[in-house]
Specification:
about 400 residues, OB fold (Dihydrolipoamide Acetyltransferase, E2P), 3 domains, six-stranded mixed β-sheet, 21 strands, about 20% helix
Length: about 400
């Protein structure tokens, strides 16, 4: 219940950590947790509450009483109005600390594990790493959504995007029609479509991808000597993707006598990257368009022992039993109960779980109780945002 007295007065708090969305965390005098956006660990702040609940509250900074040693001046003129970044006000070292703590806290609090990660692996490239941009228009300007809203913040240049994409943004019209220079045409794959979702104001969005191709050819990307067709299912940070896939391949530990099943395989990048070491690999994906691209990727790389089928992770049927390894890379919501039952039915020796949400990963680890977590690491796939990618190795008890 709202406390009208509290909502109109300010509070002095000390920030002790970070929430899952990158907000600073502190305690009010009454013991409630308060989340403060753009706060840094060690800040002493005067805050004003903007939303109250029984056990928590959200607040905005009125003024900084004592600045954190980890606080820095944001290097982007659109921060924090643009909702793309969460951590441009703290050092990168502090950002990695926050992400490491987020994973460790979820493992302890949700999965009941004492396992912790030693570091968050990073390429060290914190700007210019994105090969994909989703732009929005309100009819008057082009940019990205303001934090926690669908109001467009006009942007001429995004520090997270590579140069090809930034060059394209500067040519965009409010109608979202790209006017690209000829040298960029082979490198960009615009997909223009109106958005009519009930939660969105009338407007349009466009997705731009960059990559390497020839005139009229689909975009392609190379990873560790393998070539993949780029599509809407491809990772947006190529350098960090290589770090992640190398770790998946290490954890899978496959030989030519082994069978691999990759559930939620998308366009088959992980299936192919790790499955090249196996005797047989099968990728499962419920999106038929992604399966078509996956099959093409296997063909491009010359792997006849890697196959793909279009099916749901929980309900697929194939002549595979007791595979040596199962890889899962589910969406943010994690594994469905049916998918967990399917994994337990397959009874693999090893499971490699790739996750973009430490909370749902930890929930699913608790359900996979006949497996032991042998190793877990984190990869910073999206620097300057609160997102963190995990890779976990489970072995059968």
């Amino acid at each position: 219940m709202k406390n009208e007295y509290d909502i109109h007065r300010t509070h002095a708090v000390t920030i002790t950590g970070y929430g899952s969305g990158g907000e600073g965390i502190a305690r009010l005098d009454d013991g409630r947790v308060v989340f403060v956006r753009n706060a840094a660990r060690g800040d002493v702040l005067e805050i004003s509450l903007v939303k109250e609940q029984t056990r928590s509250a959200r607040a905005e900074i009125v003024r900084i009483l004592t600045s954190s040693p980890y606080r820095i001046e944001p290097d982007c003129p659109y921060y924090p109005e643009c909702g793309g970044c969460d951590f441009r006000h703290i050092t990168y070292e502090e950002e990695l600390w926050a992400k490491r703590r987020r994973v460790d806290d979820a493992l302890a609090r949700i999965a009941g594990l004492s396992t912790s990660i030693s570091e968050v692996h990073s390429t060290g490239q914190i700007n210019g790493y994105r090969n994909k941009a989703v732009l929005h228009s309100d009819g008057n300007s082009v940019g990205f959504y303001r934090s926690t809203s669908h109001e467009v913040v006009p942007v001429k240049r995004c520090m997270l995007l590579n140069e090809d994409l930034n060059n394209a943004i500067q040519t965009m019209k409010p109608s979202l029609e790209p006017s690209l220079e000829p040298s960029l045409e082979p490198r960009l794959e615009p997909s223009l479509e109106p958005t009519h979702k009930p939660s969105l104001k009338p407007g349009r969005e466009i997705t731009l991808r960059s990559g390497r191709n020839g005139i009229g050819e689909p975009l392609k990307e190379e990873l560790d000597g393998l070539v993949f067709r780029v599509s809407g299912f491809f990772q947006v940070n190529t350098g960090a993707t290589l770090l992640l896939y190398q770790k998946v391949r290490e954890f899978a530990d496959l030989s030519k006598e082994d069978v691999l099943v990759d559930m939620y395989c998308g366009v088959g990048t992980i299936t192919i990257f790790a499955g090249r070491d196996a005797g047989y690999a099968l990728g499962i994906e419920n999106n038929p368009a992604a399966v078509d691209v996956a099959r093409e990727n296997a063909r491009i790389n010359g792997f006849s022992h890697i196959e793909f089928i279009a099916a749901d992770a929980a309900g697929w049927h194939a002549e595979v039993s007791n595979p040596d390894c199962v890889i899962v890379d589910p969406p943010r919501k994690g594994l469905s109960p049916g998918a967990i039952r399917k994994i337990l039915e397959l009874n693999p020796l090893r499971i490699v779980y790739v996750s973009c949400d430490p909370a749902t990963l930890s929930r699913d680890l608790r359900e996979l109780k006949c497996y032991t977590v042998k190793d877990i690491c984190a990869i910073d796939m999206f620097p300057r945002t609160s997102n963190v990618e995990c890779c976990c190795l489970l072995v059968r008890d």
